[in-house]
Amino acid sequence: MFQFPFFTTLILLSLTPQLRIQAFNIISATSNTHQNITLTAILQKSAEVCQVVVLKQGRFFVQPKVLTAESVAQACLSPASASSLKEAISDIKNRNAWTDLIHFKDPEYHFDNEEFAAGRGVITQGLSVVKASLKLKNYESAREQLGEILHTLQDFYSHSNWIELDNRIPYPNLINPYLLLDSLADNKTATCSSCTVNCTNNILDTVIKQRKLTSGYYIPPKPAGKCSHGGTLDVTSLLDPTGGINKDDQQSPHGSLHLQAADVATAATRDLLEDIRRTTTDTEFLRLMGITSSSSVLCIVIDTSASMAKDIDEIKRITNFIIDSRQGTADQPSTYILVPFNSTVYGNVTKMTDPDKFKSEVKKLSAGGEGSLLRYSLSALWLALAAAPSGSEIFLFTDAGPALTDILLKSTIEAMIESTKSTVNFILTNPLTNLTSIVPNPVNLLYQQIAEASGGHFIEVSKERLPNATSLITNSTISGLVNIFYVVKGSGGAGQYTILVDPTVTNLTFYITGSLTVFAITSPSGQIQASLQSEGSLGIIETVANLQTVRINSPNPAGNWTLNIASLLSCTIKVTGKSPINFKFDLVDIANIPLPNSGYSVSQTRPSTDGSFTLLVSLLGSGSGLISELVLVDSSGSGLYKGSLEDQGSGDYLVTVETAPKGDFYIRITGQFNSSTSSKFQRQSSTRYRASTISITVLRNTTLSAGQIFTVGFVLKTSTNTKSFLTYAKNTGQDFMLFSPILPAVNGYSAGVVVFNVSANATAGTEHVLTIAVTDQELTTTNYVFLRLAVSAAVAPPAGLELSLWLSGLTLLISSFTLS
Ligand SMILES: *[C@@H]1O[C@H](CO)[C@@H](O)[C@H](O)[C@H]1NC(C)=O
Ligand SMILES: *[C@@H]1O[C@H](CO)[C@@H](O)[C@H](O)[C@H]1NC(C)=O
Ligand SMILES: *[C@@H]1O[C@H](CO)[C@@H](O)[C@H](O)[C@H]1NC(C)=O
Ligand SMILES: *[C@@H]1O[C@H](CO)[C@@H](O)[C@H](O)[C@H]1NC(C)=O
Ligand SMILES: *[C@@H]1O[C@H](CO)[C@@H](O)[C@H](O)[C@H]1NC(C)=O
Ligand SMILES: *[C@@H]1O[C@H](CO)[C@@H](O)[C@H](O)[C@H]1NC(C)=O
Ligand SMILES: *[C@@H]1O[C@H](CO)[C@@H](O)[C@H](O)[C@H]1NC(C)=O
Ligand SMILES: *[C@@H]1O[C@H](CO)[C@@H](O)[C@H](O)[C@H]1NC(C)=O
Ligand SMILES: *[C@@H]1O[C@H](CO)[C@@H](O)[C@H](O)[C@H]1NC(C)=O
Ligand SMILES: *[C@@H]1O[C@H](CO)[C@@H](O)[C@H](O)[C@H]1NC(C)=O
Ligand SMILES: *[C@@H]1O[C@H](CO)[C@@H](O)[C@H](O)[C@H]1NC(C)=O
Ligand SMILES: *[C@@H]1O[C@H](CO)[C@@H](O)[C@H](O)[C@H]1NC(C)=O
């Protein structure tokens, strides 16, 4: 028998069939949803702020006729931001939906059960975290927190009687903790009469006349005489007074007021955005929304051991070059990250937006110390992955293998890569050579595996040739680079690949990694260039160690390109270009019910090998384009499974894949520029994904407060007959502590908990990233949990904490439950 003392709520959650949304719908073809209320308000507010910024620059502002991510980015004179604006909105919307899934039983998150004070508390507490995160430039946390509170704010207008009281403007007191919440119907005042069918006047006249604020009950018990939320899943609406008052959609009990409620919710969302804007600069506000002059990131993870002197000089040179040559251009990086490490320490993450400050940080780097040949490279990489925005290119420099404890980080690093979709490139200056050529250095094997998992480059190069390799950094950190194609050709046969390049692509580049790969490229017009022709009709081929880079000259390379590989050895092929069109995807957990308007949340784990899984896919950078196909491809580029697409409007698609592949897979989309043209485009993720036979269900504390303990419980379930699981947890914010406890499996189940304390002086808005990797005893499969959390406002440390845990800065503690 099992005992899960901790997980009573969790078990309930997974067994309760009615995860029905008690709010504006999340996904709906017929009603205003949380999603499009959020989208509309963000576009309106962003356009308004842009107008101010553009006029201040003495330039013309052209108000877009129809607000879309593209038209707003254009009006902001930053057309290349269309993608990042769409991405930011999508992150905010995803988190908005998450609130329903996580807090479906908490009335204050929905202004149900007359929980006005607590509901306002959710909003104002969250708002202070948004502002604190923004101050620390933790944009991703700020977006998540914003999404959460917008859900609650928007629900007020659907679930209370604010609209029935004839208010057509937002209630400002909800975003201001200092204003009184007055005229609330007290808990003894009856508010509704029973409603048999389609009644919209079931709120008592006295309540309306005295302008008392009330809301519907959803979570029992309902006090006598109170209104219910209403709807088929609301059990309180069966009790007297029956019926309900929500305005979630047109079919709701008060559906005739749905449009009014949605309008006021949109205005309230704009007001909350304005409140954030007032505490920061217009530029920072726009940046929160993804509108920046550049979206590129320069992220360097560098070994500072004595032997690295040459490498460090080269990094100083290349950093200065990038910063000086891109001053004021769209390719100027907008975020700079530096993470040093050596054989004794790692850390000191520098993350900034000011290029000159960054230059001086890099200038301070110096090589020194008599270290060993085991370096904290992967611990430092982990921190870089945690600090960098999703989708960053990270460059790691070292000339030695990872420390023994770092080797254990492999699964955890892969979890970070899959969750952040960042790319890790290794530039390793410890090549081995025999008399004639460079041979692979076995200490670099783990680096190679990590580079491959992320679709990054793996270069072993002598210190003398280092400058040839670092030009890769200059070329991979320009804005707007997209991944068009990625395959790994196995050994034993030649290969031929067709690459579809659309008319929006410029700076087409082929990267071919593998020893001595012989290839030929054929352009759409039939011109051919072979790998030996370093300067040919199509472009320039540069070779650095095992990487050959082909930069195509043609400024307009649209058409089908063919790549023929003659070598029998394995190699990887990556094709990139610059284009405004890209896609974003997230694996999502859909509420466990077969109803259309259900909630979802972005998954924090790998999908399970048994059963289907769902992706939420957004087309970025094209207002009129559409995605026509999504295919999971294996590393050789062969299609494994096709997803079925459900168009959600605004370029968003819900994609269901019936079966999770057994092995590695990548995600490839094909789309059209609009429904009338046949002109197609193709994009592919270079991040490698895997499903797992272990499934993880997570139950966690919702807020991370300074001076408090945070717990994450997890239940593991496996379809194999493994006897135990190995777990490994890591957390930023403090130094990490690791345990590798072994959790016994009983009938395929196990459970564990990770507990960490947040230092009492942690600043609000500080990010904690937590990963828990779980591997079965046979080391055949891994799954993980990835959480990004922001510290909320500080509170005094609770008394009676275990002193050892509190004082030691010892942050993680995993224990298994008694299984009997
Ligand atoms: C929101 O969705 C509804 C239903 O699809 C639609 O009628 C409405 O125009 C949408 N609003 C926006 C701003 O997209
Ligand atoms: C009703 O409100 C009063 C005063 O605010 C409070 O003391 C009492 O506990 C409440 N009763 C219930 C059942 O919530
Ligand atoms: C109640 O409203 C629904 C939807 O608006 C409608 O289909 C139905 O006919 C109405 N019923 C009555 C009795 O008016
Ligand atoms: C980080 O900075 C502190 C103080 O500036 C220094 O003592 C420590 O050694 C540094 N660590 C690394 C990895 O550079
Ligand atoms: C590692 O770096 C730290 C901080 O820069 C330094 O204090 C220490 O001596 C270095 N250790 C080795 C072995 O190089
Ligand atoms: C050096 O390595 C290359 C490539 O692995 C191999 O072909 C060659 O035979 C080696 N030469 C010697 C002298 O070992
Ligand atoms: C490597 O770089 C040097 C100097 O930047 C250049 O002269 C040389 O041609 C490069 N070699 C290759 C193979 O690209
Ligand atoms: C990067 O691009 C520059 C020109 O933009 C070129 O000179 C350099 O060789 C390129 N490097 C690589 C590795 O492609
Ligand atoms: C991209 O292409 C444009 C035009 O073809 C060229 O001017 C620019 O230097 C290229 N950028 C890079 C980084 O190669
Ligand atoms: C490119 O190839 C695809 C099939 O792979 C074909 O449908 C398309 O028409 C081709 N495009 C051009 C411009 O030749
Ligand atoms: C949240 O934290 C408290 C103690 O701080 C703990 O008792 C509770 O079980 C935690 N809840 C979850 C879901 O982890
Ligand atoms: C924060 O608290 C830790 C102990 O919890 C202490 O070591 C550290 O010095 C404190 N930092 C500041 C800035 O007060």
Automatic annotation (TrEMBL):
Signal peptide as annotated in the record: 1-23
Domain (Hemicentin/VWA7 galactose-binding): residue spans on this chain: 482-579
Q: Where does it localize?
A: Secreted
**According to its record, what are the GO cellular component terms?**
extracellular region
What residue stretches are annotated with the VWA7 N-terminal domain?
67-286
Keywords for the protein's UniProt record, in alphabetical order: Glycoprotein, Secreted, Signal
- On whether Transcription is a keyword of this UniProt record, the answer is no
Domain Hemicentin-1-like von Willebrand factor A: residue ranges: 298-463
Report the main location listed first in the record: secreted
Recorded hits in InterPro entries, A to Z, give: GBD_Hemicentin/VWA7, HMCN1-like_VWA, VWA7, VWA7_N, vWFA_dom_sf
Q: What is this protein called?
A: Uncharacterized protein
Please name the source species.
Astyanax mexicanus
